[in-house]
Amino acid sequence: ETMKAALLLLAVGADAFHPSILKSRQLSRHAASVRLAAEKIAILFDCDGVLADTERDGHRVSFNKVFKKRGLGFEWDVNEYGRLCEVGGGKERMTFYMNKNDCWPEDCKSPTTEELNKGLPVDETRLALVKSLHAKKTELFQKLIESGVVPLRPGILSLVDEAIAAEAPLAVCSTSNENAVRTLVKVLMGGERYDKFEFFCGDVVPRKKPAPDVYNLAAETMKLPKSECVVIEDSGIGCKAAKAAEMACLVTTSTYTVEEDFTGANRIVPDLTSAGVGLADLRALLD
C-alpha cells in the first residue's frame, strides 16, 4: 500500500493534494453544478399551429362539416377563419361569429339574455348549441388526425427528442379539446414520446389565451420556476399569454399568423428547422 501511494504521488505530483488545490477543485465542481442548474429548461408547447398546422385544413374543415350537417347556412372560408383565430377557443369562436353576423339558428333567435360569460352565451339554448357543435367538431377533427393527413411541423420531432434526452419537462398548453390534443401527439409522435408530456387543454382554466392562466397552471402543477420555462407559440394571443405569465416565448409563425402582433416575443422564426432552433437556442432565451 505504501508503494502504491508513492507511485500515485509521482504520477500526479504532491501539489495535487495541497489544501488550496483541493479547495479549487471543489469550487470547480460547484461551478459546474451551478452551470448545470442554469441550463434547466422546460418547454411548453401550444398545439394548433405549433405542433402541426391544423387550423386551416383540420379545425376549419371539421367546423364546416358540422355547420353543414346542422343546416346553419354558412361556412368559414380560409380568410374568414384566419380572422376568427384571433378569438381563443372554438366555442367562443362560434359564439363571436354568430353574434357578429346575427346568424343563430331559429331555435336560438330569441335568447333569454344576450349576455356572455367569458365569451360564451349565458342563454342555455345558445350555450347548449355551441357545446354540441364543438363536441361533434372535435370528433371529426380527431378522425382527421388519426388518418395522418396533417403532419407535424418541421423541427418539432427533433426538438422533442432532444428535450427528452436532456430530461427537460414537456407540456402542451392549448385552448383545444384535450382529447383532440392527446390524439394528435400520440398519433404523430408515438406512444413513447406521448408519455413524456403533460397536458393542459380546453376548459381546464376559466380564462383562455391571451390570459396567462393555462401557463400559470402548468408551471404550478409541474412545479416549474417560470424563469426556466420557454413557451412555443404561433399566435399573437398565445404570445401575450406567455408574456403575461412572465415566461420566455419563441414564436413559430403559421399559416394564419404571419402578420400578427408578436410584441414581447423573445424570438420569431418561420419554423424550427429553417431557423435551426434546438434546445441550446431555447436555453439562450432564458438568459
Looking across the biggest beta sheet, what order are the strands in?
5-4-1-6-7-8
Task: Write the H/E string, N to C.
Answer: HHEHHHEEHHEHHEHEHEEH
Q: Beta-sheet strand percentage?
A: 5-15%
Mean pLDDT: 89
Largest sheet: 6 strands, parallel
Note the gap between the termini.
50 Å
DSSP helical segment count: 12
Question: Gyration radius, to the nearest Å?
Answer: 25 Å
Global geometry: globular
Total number of β-strand segments? 8
Structural class label? alpha/beta
Roughly how much helix do the residues carry, as a percent range?
Answer: 40-55%
Low-confidence stretches: 2-14, 21-38
Describe this structure in words.
The protein has 287 residues and is α/β, with parallel strands linked by helices. Helix content is 49%, strand content 11%. 37% of the residues are buried.
Give the arrangement of secondary structure elements.
Layout: H1 2-12, H2 19-38, E1 42-45, H3 54-70, H4 78-84, H5 90-101, E2 116-117, E3 120-121, H6 124-146, H7 156-165, E4 170-174, H8 178-189, H9 191-194, E5 197-201, H10 213-222, E6 229-233, H11 236-244, E7 248-252, E8 267-269, H12 279-284
Parallel strand pairs: 1-4, 1-6, 4-5, 6-7, 7-8
Antiparallel strand pairs: 2-3
Helix pairs in contact: 3-6, 5-6, 6-8
What key phrases describe this protein's structure?
287 residues; alpha/beta; six-stranded parallel sheet; two-stranded antiparallel sheet; globular
Quick rundown:
It contains twelve helices and eight strands. It has helices spanning 2-12, 19-38, 54-70, 78-84, 90-101, 124-146, 156-165, 178-189, 191-194, 213-222, 236-244, 279-284; strands at 42-45, 116-117, 120-121, 170-174, 197-201, 229-233, 248-252, 267-269.
